[in-house]
Amino acid sequence: MPNIPKMQKAMVFDKPNGPLEYRDIPVPTPGPDEILVNVKYSGVCHTDLHAWHGDWPLDTKLPLVGGHEGAGVVVAAGNLVTNFQIGDYAGIKWLNGSCLSCEFCKHGGESNCADAILSGYTVDGSFQQYAIAKAIHAAPIPKSCDLAEIAPILCAGITVYKALKTSGARPGEFVTIVGAGGGLGSLAVQYAKAMGLRPIGIDGGDEKAALVKKLGGEHFVDFTKSKDIVQEVIDYTEGGSHAVLNLSASSGPLNASVKYVRPMGTVVVVGLPPDAKISADVFNQVVKSISIKGSYVGNRADTDEAIDFFARGLVKVPIEIRPLNELADVFRNMEEGKIVGRVVLKCSD
Ligand code: 8ID
Ligand code: ZN
Known about the structure:
Layout: E1 7-12, E2 21-26, E3 34-43, H1 46-53, E4 70-77, E5 89-92, E6 95-97, H2 103-106, E7 117-118, E8 130-134, E9 139-141, H3 147-150, H4 156-167, E10 174-178, H5 183-194, E11 198-203, H6 206-214, E12 219-222, H7 229-237, E13 241-246, H8 254-260, E14 261-269, H9 282-288, E15 291-294, H10 300-311, E16 319-323, H11 327-335, E17 342-346
Parallel strand pairs: 10-11, 10-13, 11-12, 13-14, 14-15, 16-17
Antiparallel strand pairs: 1-2, 3-4, 3-8, 3-17, 4-5, 5-9, 6-7
Helix pairs in contact: 4-5, 4-10, 7-8
């Protein structure tokens, strides 16, 4: 049996925007239906930054250990757990648990469950050495996978893969990815390509332009330079993009997307800027028969499928590995839009 310490290191904050402290806290004990994961690596998602700022109309637990892209090794399991063995690789996802018996869970809408518990938000997450997950929702990770490289799949990968399915775009069609150089975006470009779609990226700066092209983006629109983003997308796609994924953490680009989407196309809203609104001209919406849909992480089947794309080498986000106690710096860089791809924190040896 693994030797589990009583105390561990974690990044904790006590109030929104309060100091992010590298602290010694107790190692939690898993309940009967839970596993304890020795977290090796955790991606930093923009959602973690929103949580720290208290951006959303949903309170976090306090004090809070954030993080929901945790990849590690199962070191303990409750007596009801049948789907994980000690030593297996497991992923801590945003959706830590859900009731599995409500209308939404029964239809695969686990993320829409009213009783869902959220890693790094309503329960402590993966910015620590040992984290708890409900076994039934934890992601099984094949032993062939590198735990640092797979970490971003556990939120960003699942989310964009699901959003692409939600868009209804078919092979050969254009999908415009807003925020294409970020964590979600750089994976969306690759999933889109792997699914036979034609990705167009929108983001800012030459570094992100180069990345998007390298990952398979067919065209890049720089929002900091373009004189007319809407016209540029319409021209390139000869009539509009069949689908749009809004992955940006700012609300600025939302309203443009309903203008450059193709007639009968779909705008998928994924990014969660605080207090944002999306507004569409009703005449345009009706005569072009445009759909606007929200998409929120993914269920267990989406998780397995998203991981399978990774395991087969079809998607790989560029990562920068940094120590767990540098979280505050990572948040600062993220706020400045300077992170290209994903930062992954090393949580344990
Ligand atoms: O399930 C969900 N719906 C879900 C899951 C995970 C994350 C939603 N999210 C949300 C996050 O909470 C956040 O609001 O998606 C958003 C993006 O998360 P991220 O990819 O982790 O953030 P990032 O790595 O900072 O990338 C954001 C990118 O957007 C670009 C930035 O340059 C960056 O590359 N961007 C911005 I800010 N303004 C832009 C603009 N006007 C823009 N790109 C194009 N046009
Ligand atoms: Zn996330």
